[in-house]
């Protein structure tokens, strides 16, 4: 046992095997310090939250705080990112990435409340989450010390963790049979490990949790109407709801049609490639709805700028720089662009596919009079010749120079 000068630690607690072992390990290795568990509810499986306070106390925690952050997660973290259109490496909807800064911030709030002098997470030394937690803490609470057990202890396997708890007579529902590593919140569920560790292995049925196999989804397509205001979804099928409730409703609708499955190999921030299956049914529908309204409202250069914002934001969020000035700057620009992104979209859901089949906006720049292939009286075709001549002027001059040579 070492004396690190730490008297009270707030731990990001889930009730799973890792964090159950972390509580006694901290008390044994950090001078008998107090451990305060903090569970942040961001829409994970309700079963995981049942009895979580008692579980933490039985593992040796002095207190356990359960913070309901479901609405905050969707309204203050997910929706702002959606305004930018961020997709990490073209397909990942950043479910874990957006959640970590919120969890980290909640721990800082609890630490300030209980007078803690350190913060602790259960992220491994191989992953992105350690960076996300600690970057947030650096930005919000640089005076608090950080403890990362996976970078210190010698417990390297599931078997070792189970033995560690058994030796200390700490009950756990975990077993050796767990094959996959999963992360779940209201926005998505991710699955890694098991058969997925080889990219040559196709995912099996066990790799998917929320969504129906698209091949087994209903043979009848379903239509859903989404209302958008300033780049945010505010109603589903005409019923106004909070951001969390909108997502919850769309998750239920999308899951039964196999919407939102992706199987990707991504580049982690720490340099390792990892393979995972992600399910984001409601989020995939929302993204399609927002992009549908944007197509009507944003002019060409604005849309191009929004795409650039999304690309940059995807890296900023993935890398855990939520509380950095750059993220706030990107957000401000996206909010400005989203001011007129208002409208309604009808989306058709069918066997894993989402298609925006109807869209309208009071701010639409689409003009049927100008776009028609029929006869019109508003567009003079002869004007196009002068435009093309000016637009291609540099090419013309370059070619003439070549001819002179």
TrEMBL record:
It comes from Cedecea neteri. PANTHER family: ARGININOSUCCINATE SYNTHASE. Pathway: Amino-acid biosynthesis; L-arginine biosynthesis; L-arginine from L-ornithine and carbamoyl phosphate: step 2/3. HAMAP family: Arg_succ_synth_type1. L-aspartate binds at residues 124, 128-129. This is Argininosuccinate synthase. ATP binds at residues 12-20, 122. Pfam families: Arginosuc_syn_C, Arginosuc_synth. Its main location: cytoplasm. It is an enzyme of class 6 (ligase). GO terms for molecular function: argininosuccinate synthase activity; ATP binding. Homotetramer. PROSITE patterns: ARGININOSUCCIN_SYN_1 (PS00564), ARGININOSUCCIN_SYN_2 (PS00565). One of its GO terms (cellular component) is cytoplasm. L-citrulline binds at residues 92, 97, 128, 132, 181, 190, 266, 278. It is found in: Cytoplasm. Gene3D superfamilies: Argininosuccinate synthetase, chain A, domain 2, HUPs, Single helix bin. One of its GO terms (biological process) is urea cycle. Residues 8-171 form the Arginosuccinate synthase-like N-terminal domain. Residues 180-397 form the Arginosuccinate synthase C-terminal domain.
């Amino acid at each position: 046992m070492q004396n690190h000068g730490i008297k009270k630690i707030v731990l990001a607690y889930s009730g799973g095997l890792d964090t159950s072992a972390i509580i006694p390990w901290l008390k044994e290795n950090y001078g008998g310090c107090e451990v305060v568990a903090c569970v942040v509810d961001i829409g994970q499986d309700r079963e995981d939250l049942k009895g979580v306070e008692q579980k933490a106390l039985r593992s040796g925690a002095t207190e356990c705080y359960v913070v309901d952050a479901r609405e905050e997660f969707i309204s203050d973290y997910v929706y702002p990112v959606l305004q930018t259109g961020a997709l990490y490496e073209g397909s990942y909807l950043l479910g874990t990435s957006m959640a970590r800064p919120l969890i980290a911030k909640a721990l800082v709030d609890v630490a300030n409340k209980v007078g803690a002098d350190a913060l602790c997470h259960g992220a491994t030394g191989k992953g992105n989450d350690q960076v996300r937690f600690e970057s947030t803490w650096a930005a919000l609470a640089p005076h608090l010390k950080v403890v990362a057990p996976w970078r210190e202890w010698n417990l390297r396997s599931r078997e070792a963790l189970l033995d560690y708890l058994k030796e200390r007579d700490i009950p756990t529902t975990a077993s050796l049979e767990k094959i996959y590593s999963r992360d779940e919140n209201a926005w998505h569920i991710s699955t890694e490990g098991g058969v997925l560790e080889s990219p040559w292995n196709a995912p099996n049925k066990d790799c998917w949790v929320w969504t129906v196999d698209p091949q087994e989804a209903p043979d009848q397509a379903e239509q859903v109407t989404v209302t958008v205001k300033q780049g945010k979804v505010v109603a589903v099928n005409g019923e106004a709801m909070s951001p969390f409730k909108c997502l919850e409703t769309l998750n239920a609708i999308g899951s039964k049609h196999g919407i939102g499955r992706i199987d990707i190999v991504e580049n982690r921030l720490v340099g390792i490639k990892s393979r995972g299956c992600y399910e984001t049914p409601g989020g995939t529908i929302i993204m399609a709805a927002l992009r549908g309204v944007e197509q009507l409202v944003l002019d060409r250069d604005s849309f191009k700028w929004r795409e650039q914002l999304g690309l940059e934001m995807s890296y900023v969020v993935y890398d855990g720089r939520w509380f950095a000035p750059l993220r706030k700057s990107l957000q401000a620009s996206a909010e400005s662009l989203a001011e007129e992104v208002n409208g309604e979209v009808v989306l058709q859901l069918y066997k894993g596919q989402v298609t925006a089949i109807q869209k309208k906006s009071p701010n639409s720049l689409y003009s049927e009079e100008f776009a028609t292939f029929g006869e019109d009286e508003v567009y003079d075709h002869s004007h196009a010749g002068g435009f093309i001549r000016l637009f291609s002027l540099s090419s013309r001059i370059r070619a003439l120079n070549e001819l002179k040579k």
